Amino acid sequence: MTEKNIETHLSPSAVWNADVPPFTGVRKTVDGDEAAERMNTINYWLKQRFHHKMIKLSLDGGFTCPNRDGTRGTGGCTFCSSTGSGEFASDIASQLDLLHEKWPRAGCLAYFQNHTNTYAPVDVLRERFRKALEDPRIEGLVVATRPDCLPDEVLDLLSEIAEHHFLWIELGLQTSKPETVRLINRCYGNDEYTGAMRRLRERGIHAVSHLILGLPGETREDMFRSLNFVKENHSWGIKLHLLNVTKGSRLAEDLPDYEPFPSMESYISLVCDMIEQIPPEMVIHRLTADVPRPLLIAPSWSFRKRTILNGINAELRQRDSWQGKFLD
User: Which whole number is the average pLDDT over 223-231?
Assistant: First the structure.
């Protein structure tokens, strides 16, 4: 393998300033993907950006979390599994073996997914990110982390990487409701999220915000307030997660009979209502969430990911609606 490093490697397709046509509400399908008609999906955005199909390789970087080792808390967030919600994460070779047959000509992004992937000394982060980027099949980097794990020296490293590589950062906000923040043991405040988003914007680093729908005690109004909070912080992208109650999580121990939604249809309806309030320029990265079926407790239907997504697309067509149609 040719030796490369973060400072010198520059992929021709990994330039941030490439033009991506703006989403205008309703447009023609891309490769038969009807979701592309009505939403600014990450699949569509990446296709416009790289000019070919892109897939994420879910990697286990070997990190932990300050909410597990006692720095900020112990036990992790109540919804989080023992793997740091990275049940599908492994290494680059294993991920390529898993996905290459389905998408043999797709480009790849290295996605450091589970636990907190900036929670380590900078030299350790540099080496692990460099190793991933050395692989000639990797065209960019995605890093999932917490807003309270982005000190200046880490932001300096991310800025350095972003000068030469395609990069985005994912932040697990989950909710903006203070009572729920305490309930799920998130162990950082909304002001830390706001500060992290501001510092990332100042450095020109794209950020994706995670929201979990169906958290205990949350109403429809609470979930929309969280969505508005993400919008107010100018997030480039958004992930809407269906809450999964999984075996081994604290949530399963504390609320063993909890059902996040009464039915798949009720979840689909809520997501469509939210899509209508998401700005067209915000890139939608996820609309549900899935875990390995043996780990799933509730909702019993959440493993039917394709059915849920098809239902969302069908509902938008039935409504003749699209992303941002009813913005406040």
Answer: 98
Q: How many CB atoms lie within 10 A of CB 207?
A: 23
66 prior amide bond cis, ω within 30: no
Block residue for tokens 């780990």: 295
Looking at residue 59, its amino acid is L
Residue 142 lies in a domain: yes
Boundaries of domain holding 191? 41-319
Residue 273 covered by a domain: yes
Q: Which residue bears the tokens 């992790």?
A: 76
Report how far apart the first and last C-alpha atoms of the chain are (Å, whole number): 52
Classify burial at 283, counting beta carbons within 10 Å of its beta carbon; exposed 0-12, middle 13-18, buried 19 or more: buried
Per residue in 153-178, pLDDT (tens digit) is: 999 999 999 999 999 999 999 999 99
Q: What are phi and psi of 209, to 5 degrees?
A: -105, 135
Taking alpha carbons only, the member of 48, 137, 124 closest to residue 92 is: 137
Rg of the chain taking only CA atoms, in angstroms: 19
Residue 263, SS3?
coil
The answer to whether residue 106 is domain-embedded is yes
Cβ atoms of 159 and 196 within 8 Å: the answer is: no
Beta-carbon contacts of 235 under 8 Å, excluding residues fewer than 6 positions away, are 197, 207, 208, 209, 282
> Beta 245-246 vs 296-298: how paired, if at all?
antiparallel
Check which CATH number belongs to the domain holding 193 and give it: 3.20.20.70
- pLDDT digit string, tens, across residues 235-251: 999 999 999 999 989 99
What is the reported pTM?
0.89
- Residues 174-218: pLDDT tens digits? 999 999 999 999 999 999 999 999 999 999 999 999 999 999 999
Cβ atoms of residues 178 and 140 within 8 Å: no
- Which residue in this structure is represented by tokens 């998130």? 186
Residue 29 maps to a domain: no
CB count within 10 Å of CB 187 equals 21
Strand partners, 138: 108
Q: How many domains does the chain have?
A: 1
CB of 208 closer than 8 Å to CB of 169: yes
